[in-house]
Amino acid sequence: MSWLTKCIGLASILLLASCSSDSEDLTGQCSAIGLSEKSSTDFVAKISNGRECTDAQKSPVVAIIQRTPNGSSGLCTGTLITPTQVLTAAHCLVDAATVDVIYGVAPERYARMSGSSWVIHPQFAQTASGRLLYDIGVINLLNPLPISPLPILSSTTPQNGQRATIAGFGLTAGNASDGGVLRVGAQALASVEPEIIIAVSEEGSSNTCFGDSGGPLLVQQNGQAQLIGTTSYGSSNSCALGELTVYMNLQSATLQNFLRRYAPGAKYN
Is the pTM of this model over 0.70? Predict the structure, then answer.
């Protein structure tokens, strides 16, 4: 068990992770974010076609531990968008007293860097029905991480049915306790809307669960992973097949205006 897994405990925030069946071979999914994956003998069958990644020291996808003033903690995921800034979900940062970014330096070994400050989208809100609006935030680090950031896609619009990559440190099922391991999976986009992107977990695709909130939704363009969304919330707590995952659409003008102001060093392709 890794140090990170031991430190997580029970997450207290509604967050996201990869759940699935093994009906589709997702070999090579970790390469979508520039990593390798463990051999097929290490395949975790209950993850919805997710793959466990190695080479954590190269990963632009990082774990986030948020602690509140009363001492409770929660696990989230984030993506490095500049050498000193991590994009995540706003709900991962609300009421935080401290925020730590956990990134890999070697297999089964992690390094911690405290967030010096963080900012959430000023229009972030939760509706009466439970929907989250403008659910993004940026963590500022004191020092740059030795990892290449991921760019944000702005030149082309994602399409319904397009295959996308998801990644996170969350659980493999709603009642699991196995967070703290970076896993990568794939989903097809079901609906691309102006502010959100919706994907449905179906047989042969991946899903998200507690701990994956704030993690990336990625597509490949010109051989490089490009950010199109961040994981926000799901349609239930079970992380099962047939459920919806909602991602914030990073091509939204409102979200991009926020990022261009608070993360001016982010790259757009």
Answer: yes
Strands 183-192 and 196-200: antiparallel
Whole-Å CA distances, 21 to 57, 171, 204, 206, 215: 28, 15, 6, 8, 21
Domains for the chain: give ranges and CATH numbers: 1-269 (2.40.10.120)
Tokens 């009642």 label which residue? 175
Dihedral sign, Cα of residue 11, residue 13, residue 16, residue 19: positive
Distance between alpha carbon 8 and the CA centroid of its chain, in Å? 16
Structure tokens at 178: 């196995």
Query: Is 141 within 8 Å of 84 (Cβ atoms)?
Result: yes
Write the pLDDT tens digit of every residue in 109-153. 778 899 999 999 999 999 998 899 999 999 999 999 989 999 999
What radius of gyration, in Å, describes the C-alpha atoms of the chain?
A: 16
Backbone angles phi, psi at 33, to 5 degrees: -115, 25
The rounded distance, in Å, linking the Cα atoms of 210 and 15 is 4
Provide DSSP, 219-240.
EEETTEEEEEEEEEEESSSS--
